Amino acid sequence: MAKNILQKHDQNFAWRSLPVVQRVLHKYPSIALSQPDPAWRSIRQIYATQLFAPTKIKSFQPIILEEVRSMLRSIDAERKQKSCARSKLHAASSNIISIMALGKKLQMNESNSTANASSHLTSLLDIFAGGTDTSSTTVEWALAELILHPSKMKRVQDEIDEVVGNSRLVEQDDVQNMPYFQAVIKETMRLHPVIPFLVPRMAKQECRIEDFDIPANALTFINIWAIGSDENRFLGSDFDIRGRHFELLPFGITNVNLMLACLLQAFDFERDERLDKIEKFGFVMALANPLLLKASRRIPIHLIIALSTSQLSLSLNRDKIWIVVVYKF
């Protein structure tokens, strides 16, 4: 049923029913709740070409690595005690999204500045909401599962060491050479979908799917959690690791690769006796009890502090550039 709605009848089910609260409080719906009109297509095109295109994402890699290093430094500074993974992951995700989305000033149309400002603000809120909690929560779930299964964590770390070594941090291009790491990401998203239900879809016209007659304007809810929890969809089948099968549809896009890979490359993590997998449903489905990390460094310290503009003080003296590293060991 879900496959037919999302693939075969996707044009008919591309419409949204705007919640009453949003109609009352805000004139401009978010991209997730917008109708597939020309304005929606224009915003989607901007997202695809200016933020999420492969060339754009690659150009953001130094920024992402800088924020990842900052997160690693924060964890390393507290390695003798337990630190909250959620706050550090959320801070890193927020900083990355902020720089990607707000790195340049918005160009307003003076003839309709108020309307454009509101619609731009709504789009920016979409980016922050969709890119911070979802990414940080997925990484937190992955860390929790790997800490509970140390042999699996060791296997991922061995793969990272084999592909990257310990002379530099993981980069995005390395991920394609780490199939087991990719499988861990997908398994995490299968077991713990951050958003258990997709945004409700509305049928524009009456249609028939399988043995069901669906009237016009009917709302459909796709239960991603149920799809992922059905072992018959995953066991005994030959899957493409790149996620082209319908059963792997929720795993098509992820922004967590560098954060998780660098964390596993940089640290070993001890199990917290209070660690459980109780879920708490809210804007996203996260761990009810935030994950506490007890980390020990497994890579040279210079990889964590290297080339950090926020941690380096430059002093120029004609023929020499002195680089003074400010770091608390």
Automatic annotation (TrEMBL):
Superkingdom of origin: Eukaryota
Heme among keywords: yes
InterPro entries in the record: Cyt_P450 (IPR001128), Cyt_P450_sf (IPR036396)
Keyword line: Heme, Iron, Metal-binding, Oxidoreductase
Keyword Transmembrane helix: no
GO molecular-function terms, A-Z: heme binding; iron ion binding; monooxygenase activity; oxidoreductase activity, acting on paired donors, with incorporation or reduction of molecular oxygen
Protein family (similarity comment): Belongs to the cytochrome P450 family.
Protein name: Cytochrome P450
